[in-house]
């Protein structure tokens, strides 16, 4: 039988495979035990590597957690999101951006790790500061899109960041905070589509 081809993004070097195993193990530990109870020893044991190997890749538990958060946000599609197009309808472009946001919010690890981050941030102001700085280093696709559409004269706003935040709030108020804070179930595909439609309609009614 022919061997199964490796995934294009699968790590090939031993050091990369170990790093991926450490990250996967850390995600599982943070989800299961929370930030405070997770230790580098537990991560090393779950990953099947030595604690020294873990520290060779990540200087501290904080650094490991920040890496996970950054990778999770990147996988949400901001880097691959379609930029603003002057020749395309606003509604269709916004629906695509909101759909990408909803896919990020519905990643299996997202809600659990968001809870971990919130609790860890409450107990560690320094970690909270680092999380805010990390997220602030990225200009989210939604903010960049709103800024470009406003500069093109197709949206009426003097504060693109605030307008984008309002759009995100319309989405997260239904598809993030109830799940993270009150344990509500993730939205179905039909519910996600309805949230996207209504959020975009409300946004365009105000700024379009």
Summarize the structure.
With 208 residues, the protein is mostly helical.
Fold and architecture overview:
GO terms for molecular function: DNA-binding transcription factor activity; transcription cis-regulatory region binding. It comes from Luteimonas viscosa. Pfam families: TetR_C_7 (PF14246), TetR_N (PF00440). Residues 39-58 bind DNA. This protein has helices at residues 14-37, 40-47, 51-57, 61-75, 90-105, 110-123, 125-136, 141-151, 160-175, 177-182, 189-207. The chain is mainly α and 208 residues long. The chain has a single domain, classed as Tetracycline Repressor, domain 2 (Orthogonal Bundle), CATH 1.10.357.10. Helix 1 (14-37) packs across helix 2 (40-47) and helix 5 (90-105) crosses helix 11. It is elongated, with a radius of gyration of 20 Å.
């Amino acid at each position: 039988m022919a061997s199964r081809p490796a995934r294009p993004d699968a790590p090939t070097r031993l050091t990369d495979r170990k790093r991926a195993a450490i990250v996967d193990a850390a995600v599982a530990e943070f989800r299961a035990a929370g930030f405070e109870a997770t230790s580098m020893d537990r991560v090393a044991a779950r990953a099947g590597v030595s604690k020294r190997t873990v520290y060779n890749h990540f200087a501290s538990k904080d650094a490991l957690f920040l890496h996970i958060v950054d990778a999770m946000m990147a996988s949400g599609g901001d880097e691959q999101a379609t930029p603003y197009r002057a020749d395309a309808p606003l509604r269709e472009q916004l629906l695509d951006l909101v759909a990408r946001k909803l896919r990020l919010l519905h990643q299996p690890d997202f809600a659990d790790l968001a809870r971990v981050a919130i609790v860890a941030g409450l107990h560690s102001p320094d970690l909270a500061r680092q999380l805010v700085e990390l997220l602030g280093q990225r200009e989210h696709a939604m903010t960049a899109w709103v800024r470009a559409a406003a500069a093109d004269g197709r949206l009426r706003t003097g504060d693109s960041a605030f307008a984008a935040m309002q759009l995100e709030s319309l989405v997260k108020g239904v598809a993030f905070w109830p799940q993270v804070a009150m344990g509500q179930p993730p939205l179905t595909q039909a519910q996600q589509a309805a949230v996207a439609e209504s959020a975009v309609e409300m946004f365009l009614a105000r700024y379009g």
